[in-house]
């Protein structure tokens, strides 16, 4: 009985967390000059919390109208053996979406932010299978990478979120 309650509370926390960020992303319409690093971090988290491609596309368009460039992709697998692959995917997606231009500084910034975000969830995810999304956001010299994971061990489930931020002088010329 206690086990069922624990699982239900875990999923309840997950949905409350998702609803909270859903509310934030719907209310996030900001002028480009007013966008701060915390807004870029919220955008990365919001994109990583999307449930499907339709929601992801509408979220990305909403942030694009505000001047924030975003991208995201799904991740699954054993945490430890997949870290390098996910960091490489983050770099590739950021290049493909035009968030970075591929210079050494840009690549280092996105890799560093992704590594930082993954390091924050590592204590919970070490040695187990995970599934979730990585979200990337950039605006006004702020780059954020968010990792949202569902962590599974048998029938026990947990949720973890990590966020990496870098201040970059110029990633790409978006003019």
Describe, in plain words, how this protein is organized in 3D.
- The chain is 53% helix and 26% strand.
- By secondary structure, the chain is an alpha+beta fold.
- It has one domain (2-167): 3-Layer(aba) Sandwich (Hut operon positive regulatory protein HutP), CATH 3.40.1510.
- It has a 4-stranded antiparallel sheet, sandwiched between helices.
- Helix 1 (2-27) crosses helix 2, helix 2 (37-48) packs antiparallel against helix 3 and helix 4 (79-96) runs antiparallel to helix 5 (104-125).
- The radius of gyration is 16 Å and the shape is globular.
- The model has no long low-confidence stretch (mean pLDDT 84).
Per the CATH scheme, the topology name is Hut operon positive regulatory protein HutP
- Which of globular, elongated, flat, extended, rod-shaped describes the shape? globular
The CATH superfamily label reads Hut operon regulatory protein HutP
How many domains, as an integer? 1
Main-sheet strand order equals 1-2-3-4
Order of helices and strands: HHHEHHEEE
The CATH architecture can be given as 3-Layer(aba) Sandwich
**How would a crystallographer describe the biggest sheet?**
4 strands, antiparallel
Count of strand segments: 4
Q: What fraction of the residues are assigned to beta strands by DSSP?
A: 25-35%
Task: Look at the structure and give the mean pLDDT.
Answer: 84
**Termini separation (Å)?**
59 Å
- Which blocks of ≥5 consecutive residues have pLDDT under 50? none
Helix share, percent: 40-55%
Q: Structural class, please?
A: alpha+beta
